[in-house]
Design a protein that fits this description.
By secondary structure, this protein is mainly α. The protein is built from ten helices and no strands. It has one domain.
Length: 268
């Protein structure tokens, strides 16, 4: 006798299988719930180690202040309101929780889109997650490394008689947005390779569009860079150009053996 119970999620063996709208929504809800739980766990962990994380984030500011005595920087960040400390801890914990949960989030994204891929393409799950983590971490590192130069440019741009006063909300917001923008920007090649895998783009088309891509990359880098300084612009745009050609090479290797899709024969 067959045991009655809740039906499991549908198992799709090929992209030709279909899921109903309700099945898509149930799958999406399942992935979102798992991602949110991972963020909450990461948030609690970052909240517990808040002090060393804050010192790490303050390091570019302290280095810049030490290199420019004329700035007359007060030690550390300046609290303006009584809630600044609590809001800073909450913001750092939330952003850090998302970063800690990033492997789970990327895995859930991949599992959600996997039913639309062929069986031989689903084996790229682990490389997809690992390469995304590595590129995001590399982008965040570049943002952290270039931040002192960005601070120098921004303070100098205000005029010679300006005295910087860095508050937690402004500074932490800038640091986290910079690291997030660079991390997301460095995921650019993963997106291109994925679009080539599913047939939306081809390596040949990307090679043909290289001139337009240079313009688009520099415009995108200028838009997503929070500081707006030229150091950050070039530090983001130049690696994205390198990643563009690297993605073309990887995509060509992955799709070169794939047979072209046959057009349906016309009905006589």
């Amino acid at each position: 006798m067959r045991r009655k119970g809740r039906a499991g999620r549908p198992k799709l063996s090929s992209p030709d299988d279909k899921m109903t709208l309700m099945e898509h929504l149930a799958e999406l809800r399942n992935r979102i719930v798992k991602s949110v739980l991972a963020i909450v766990i990461g948030l609690i962990g970052v909240f517990s180690f808040y002090d060393p994380i804050l010192k790490f984030l303050e390091r570019p500011l302290t280095d810049s202040c030490a290199a420019h005595p004329a700035w007359h920087c007060p030690p550390g960040l300046t609290l303006i309101g009584p809630l600044d400390g609590f809001l800073t801890r909450t913001r750092v914990s939330l952003y850090g929780g998302v970063i800690v949960a990033l492997p789970v989030i990327l895995w859930q994204i991949w599992k959600f889109v996997t039913p639309g891929l062929h069986a031989n393409e689903k084996r790229y799950a682990i490389p997809f997650v690992l390469s995304s983590l590595a590129l995001f971490g590399f982008g965040a590192f570049i943002a952290y490394w270039i931040l002192p130069k960005a601070l120098e440019f921004l303070v100098a741009y205000a005029g010679p008689n300006s005295t910087p006063l860095f508050t937690p909300d402004k500074y932490i917001g800038l640091v986290t947005l910079m690291m997030a923008a660079f991390g997301i920007g460095f995921l650019f090649p993963v997106l291109l390779v994925f679009l080539m895998l599913i047939g939306v783009l081809t390596p040949r088309k990307l090679v043909e569009w290289w001139r337009q891509s240079i313009v688009v990359i520099f415009v995108a880098a200028a838009v997503i860079t929070p500081s707006g300084d030229p150091f950050s612009l070039f530090a983001l745009a130049i690696p994205m150009l390198v990643f563009y050609w690297a993605a073309i090479l990887v995509g060509w290797v992955l799709v070169r053996g794939r047979a072209p899709k046959k057009e349906p024969s016309p009905v006589a």
